[in-house]
Design a protein that fits this description.
With about 300 residues, this protein is α+β, with helices and mostly antiparallel strands. The chain has 2 domains: about 90 residues, no CATH class; about 170 residues, Glutaredoxin (3-Layer(aba) Sandwich). Helix 7 links the parallel strand 2 and strand 3. The two termini are about 50 Å apart.
């Protein structure tokens, strides 16, 4: 490598690293940069260790001794992008870990922004989510942690997740569970939900009805829901006649509006604390989030030194 090339490469490294002194001196053209570099090489004693700090110091001293220049034309590029950009590209290609760190940082910012937006949305919808007088409440009505599930009776994943909910209700006497009908998979789902809304208002065991619909083989529709309600002593004729009334429709419509505001599009979806949890995440994940809510008021608690990640 020639004596001229060495300082130019180091100077480019300074520019890339944000340490270049050239950008602090407006109006330097490429030709002027080359002249400075040539002068630096000519005046630098040999041998010399041309690290970044040395180049910066040498060039700064050289510039300080140059005569002042007139105000440059703002359209004059300080460095030719056609030559600088390939240098930057080469630098990044030779140091790909930089790109990975940038990507990781960007992902962290996206996740943090999404969490903050979710927190704000959940706070704005607190009354609709937790205080609807017509939603179904299971477990301890005064529990210290509330788990909300939005579900569809024809959702296979909801069916698979039913034992998780049953276990939580059985083992946790301080858990409050809210069930919200969110029929999105078929007309049969809508019909079953309309019957379920009425069952929830009746003086019967809704949990028994709920489990029945998730354990009956095949598609769930009005007929299946009416049979399950009849088994609890409710009049199926009365339920069918009332299923399309505005009062029943409004209960489900409120759940649709919550889902729309929170961009919920699938079932099951859980809401707990400051988090929306899509999908059947499993018993252990739900337990962990409930435990965190009790420990720090959030589904994710800050780790203490020495705590496993």
């Amino acid at each position: 490598m020639s004596r001229l090339t060495v300082p130019l490469v180091l100077i480019a490294g300074l520019v890339i690293g944000g340490l270049g002194v050239f950008v602090t001196r407006p109006g330097l053209t490429e030709a002027q940069v080359r002249e400075i570099a040539q002068a630096v090489v000519a005046e630098t004693p040999k041998p010399v260790s041309l690290d970044k700090a040395a180049v910066e110091t040498i060039v700064a001293d050289f510039l300080a001794n140059q005569p002042s220049q007139n105000t440059p034309d703002p359209q004059v590029a300080e460095l030719d992008p056609g030559k600088l950009n390939p240098m930057i590209e080469t630098f990044l290609m030779e140091n790909p870990s930089i790109l990975q760190r940038v990507s990781d940082k960007l992902q962290q910012e996206v996740v943090a922004k999404r969490k903050e937006e979710t927190r704000i949305q959940l706070a704005a919808l607190k009354a609709e989510i937790y205080e609807d007088p017509e939603h179904i409440v299971l477990g301890n009505p005064d529990g210290d942690v509330t788990l909300v599930e939005m579900f569809d009776y024809n959702c296979g994943y909801c069916r698979q997740a039913l034992p998780d909910l049953a276990t939580l209700l059985d083992e946790d006497p301080n858990l409050r569970v809210i069930l919200k009908e969110f029929p999105i998979l078929s007309q049969g789902s809508v019909e079953a939900a309309r019957i379920a809304v009425q069952v929830g208002k009746a003086e019967v065991d809704y949990w028994t009805f709920h489990q029945k619909l998730f354990t009956v083989p095949g598609k769930i529709d009005k007929a299946v829901a009416l049979r399950a309600a009849s088994d609890l002593g409710l009049n199926p004729i009365t339920l069918e006649m009332s299923m399309n009334t505005p009062a029943v429709a409004e209960v489900i419509d409120r759940n649709y509006r919550i889902a729309d505001e929170l961009k919920i599009t699938g079932t099951p979806t859980y809401i707990i604390g400051d988090e929306i949890i899509p999908g059947a995440v499993g018993l252990d994940q739900l337990r962990a989030r409930i435990a965190n809510m009790r420990a720090c008021g959030s589904t994710e608690c800050p780790q203490t030194p020495g705590q496993p990640g």
